[in-house]
Structure formats: structure tokens, C-alpha cells
Amino acid sequence: MTNPAYTPGVAAGGAYAFAREGYDRAEHHELTTADVENATVYGRDDETIGSVQSLQVGTDGKITHAVVDVGGFLGIGAHSVLLPFHELHVLRATNGVDVRVHLDTTKEKLKAMPHYTG
Questions:
Q1: Domain that holds residue 53
Q2: The domain spanning residue 86 has which CATH number?
């Protein structure tokens, strides 16, 4: 059953687009590491699949990659993966407080990726 507040679609260029009631798309160039670190990560079916453990920033000051912890509990037993930041769809609550991160994938696919040890 699909969540009624969840509206997936395909954006220009084939990128997966996400829309949630009460949330607006956050432009990557407007985000800081504090905005995104520790944010909950949701999968393509709106299930919770992990959290953003940390972010990597390039020499230009822009966020380049995210380390996402998949599974586990309070960081114990989590499988960490490194993802290009452009693959994350970041939404900010209309009131500007809450940030959600969405990926066009599943928990199982992320767990199948190589473990990132940084």
C-alpha cells in the first residue's frame, strides 16, 4: 500500500523525484553539514533504511559524499556505505526545522554495497 503523502515520480533526466506533504525540496547548495548529519534516510517505498552518519566536503566547501548507516540500532551493527551526495534527495519541512533524506533504493541494496570504513 502506498503512503498517500508519498508522491514518487521521475524528474527530468530520469532522476527519481520525491514529494512529501509538508516538505519542500532542499537545494544541495543551500545545505550545511549540520542540516543533514544524523538525518533519517528513507527508501523508495518510504521505509526507514538508516541515517546519515557523516558528510564529506570538497575543497570548494560543497558536500560531496554522505556516509549512511544502514540497519543496526543506535549505530551498533550498522552497515556504513559511502554515497555521492547528489544521489540523496533532501527535503526540509515547510516550517524549516525537520530534514528528511530519501534514496531511490532499498535497505537490502545498500547492505549489499561494500562496507565503508572511512
A1: 23-111
A2: 2.30.30.240
Model pLDDT for residues 10-37, shown as the tens digit of each residue: 444 444 467 778 888 888 788 888 989 9
Residue 112, all three cell numbers: 549489499
Is residue 4 a part of any domain in this protein?
A: no
Q: Residue 49, class by beta-carbon neighbours within 10 Å (0-12 exposed, 13-18 middle, 19+ buried)?
A: buried
Query: What cell does 115 get?
Result: 562496507
Residue 116 lies in a domain: no
Assigned C-alpha cell, 101: 533524506
The number of domains in the chain is 1
**Enclosing H/E stretch for 35:** helix 33-36
Q: Per-residue pLDDT tens for 52-100?
A: 999 999 999 889 999 999 987 666 778 999 999 999 999 999 887 789 9
What's the rounded Cα separation, in Å, for the pair 72 and 97? 26
